[in-house]
Design a protein that fits this description.
Blueprint lengths: L1 H24 L13 H32 L1
Length: about 70
Amino acid sequence: MNYMKKIRIYIILAVILSVALPAVLLAQGPIDPEDTPIDGGLSLLLAAGAAYGVKKYRNVKRKNNEAASDI
């Protein structure tokens, strides 16, 4: 019986936390899109992604040329 009591307490605690935590986490209010700084970091990520894509494209092209020349 003691084991079942512990399980019930843990379940009740989990329910309380899952109900209470979202209210606490969202207490700052909605995010204003005008205040979101996406200028510098986003351009760096786009440049890095483009460079990575070009590198992958060149590697695949080089492998295809090597395979064609081996035949």
